[in-house]
Inverse folding.
């Protein structure tokens, strides 16, 4: 049976009717038009669908939309409304991504890391992105991009 | 849609209500905590439900509390919560080291069942699972918990409320070693939790090398009361094949798992003994 949920998506209050069987990822993409989180493995393994739920990274393909009623979601669309953030600038400077499919998930775990620890070591960066798969880059450029962002903000 | 069949979603706000719903609906209701396991089982059709009971509205289940020498971990506590807890880091460092070995940040931010990686450490801590159902409250030793890889002793009308971990009476040094195919998020090929206590007792449990996590009682008996030296450690390693029954799967062959379990036991015993005397690598350092 459909039920109404209210949530804050990227700072904006939204309401939407969902079935209990619908995933947060599908509701974000198909009903709320938020296409940043990507649909890929659909088993919680790859991290492409990562969003921040109340500031913590989670996989939106592993969460029912009804579970997040009343809570706050941030996606890659949400944190750079006007201009590039230092993290995004650094990703550009380091040519961190190729096809970009992993970029939104990688960005969200990097945001979580830098919020918690603005001056991470290389090992800490690798640990932070260890749940996110990238089929293109070999990860080095992404790690460098995140370390570069840390240098900009500290 | 993750499930072909519809289900109702309920989010009770207190434990009594959740227990009541589960008690009435039994197997037709599925309990949802972090969802790391159950969402995939609903998706694949392996699990079906008429009702999903989400526990995340029950604040008390998210608490970590220490009462005298007993650590209580609520059923909603995640591995990230464990990593963030100074109490656990200082007083139950083996549990802390284990939480760090699980999945990745976005998995740990949600997950928290006694399962896979966490089982060996909880076994050596002699953890108890706290449950509640229509018949009231009950506690079951984790060593009696698992029946087979897909089943535990929890009845269809019961809910797990948390885990109780007694602090060992003696000082101890401990470690958790997890062998993976690569650095990063992966289930283990083999793992071992080891505790060396000041009274020369040892507690050892293996994971991923048999259908269930295994408490290594023969090895514990061999070591009991003795100081660890290299000769004794070699004898302990020789007993490993008698304790475990590894299988071949996509992660590793049975032979590799058996060999590496011996290597990990050897390194782990040395590290646990060194940590007992405040030496050895810091907790959280990878030992394999
Ligand atoms: C990508 C990925 C990587 C992972 N890597 C690791 C890893 O490296 N090591 C590891 O150990 N695990 C790993 N996991 C597994 C993860 O630890 C488990 O999915 C998680 O611990 C399950 O906890 P949960 O809270 O998400 O459980 P849920 O999925 O919510 O529940 C699991 C089961 O327990 C039942 N249940 C839950 N709570 C209760 C309760 N209070 N009372 C009664 N029944 C209950 C549910 O009905 C369900 O059957 C990984 C999972 C994913 C998706
Ligand atoms: S699509 Fe969610 S983790 Fe891969
Ligand atoms: S840039 Fe293509 S998957 Fe990462």
């Amino acid at each position: 049976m459909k039920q109404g949920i209210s949530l804050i998506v990227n700072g904006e209050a939204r309401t939407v009717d969902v079935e209990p069987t619908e995933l947060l990822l599908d509701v974000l993409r198909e009903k709320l038009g938020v296409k940043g989180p990507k649909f890929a493995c659909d088993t919680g393994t790859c991290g492409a669908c990562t969003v921040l739920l109340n500031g913590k990274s989670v996989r939106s393909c592993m969460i029912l939309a009804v579970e997040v009623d009343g809570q706050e979601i941030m996606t890659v669309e949400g944190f750079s409304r006007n201009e590039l953030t230092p993290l995004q600038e650094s990703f550009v400077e380091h040519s961190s991504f190729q096809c970009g499919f992993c970029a939104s998930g990688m960005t969200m775990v990097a945001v979580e890391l830098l919020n918690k620890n603005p001056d991470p070591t290389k090992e800490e960066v690798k640990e932070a992105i260890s749940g996110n798969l990238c089929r293109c880059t070999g990860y080095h450029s992404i790690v460098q991009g995140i370390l570069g962002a840390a240098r900009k903000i500290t | 849609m993750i499930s072909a069949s519809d289900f109702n979603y309920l989010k009770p706000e207190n434990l009594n209500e959740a227990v009541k719903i589960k008690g009435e609906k039994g197997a037709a209701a599925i309990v949802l905590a972090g969802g790391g396991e159950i969402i995939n089982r609903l998706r694949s059709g392996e699990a079906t439900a008429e009702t999903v009971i989400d526990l995340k509205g029950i604040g008390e289940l998210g608490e970590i509390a220490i009462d005298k020498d007993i650590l209580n971990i609520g059923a909603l506590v995640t591995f990230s919560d464990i990593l963030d807890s100074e109490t656990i880091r200082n007083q139950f460092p083996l549990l802390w080291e284990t939480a760090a070995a699980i999945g990745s940040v976005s998995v740990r931010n949600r997950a928290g069942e006694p399962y896979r990686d966490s089982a060996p450490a909880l076994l050596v801590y002699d953890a108890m699972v706290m449950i509640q159902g229509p018949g009231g409250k009950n506690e079951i030793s984790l060593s009696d918990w698992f029946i087979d890889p897909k089943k535990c002793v929890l009845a269809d009308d019961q809910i797990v409320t948390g885990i109780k971990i007694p602090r060992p009476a003696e000082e101890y040094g401990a470690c958790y070693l997890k062998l993976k195919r690569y650095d990063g998020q992966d289930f283990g090929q083999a793992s071992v939790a080891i505790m060396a206590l000041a009274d020369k007792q040892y507690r050892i449990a293996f994971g991923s090398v048999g259908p269930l996590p295994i408490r290594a009682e023969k090895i514990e008996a061999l070591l009991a009361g003795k100081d660890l030296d290299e000769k004794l450690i070699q004898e302990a390693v020789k007993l490993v094949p008698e304790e475990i029954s590894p299988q071949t799967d996509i992660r590793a062959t049975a032979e590799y798992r058996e060999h590496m379990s011996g290597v990990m036991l050897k390194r782990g015993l040395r590290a646990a003994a060194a940590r007992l005397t405040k030496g050895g690598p810091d907790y959280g350092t990878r030992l394999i």
Notes: Residues 172-277 of chain B form a domain with the Enolase-like; domain 1 fold (CATH 3.30.390.50). The longest helix of chain B spans residues 254-276. The pocket of FE2/S2 (inorganic) cluster (ligand 3) is lined by residues A 97-102, 134-137 (CB under 6 Å). Chain B touches chain A through 28 residues (CB under 8 Å).
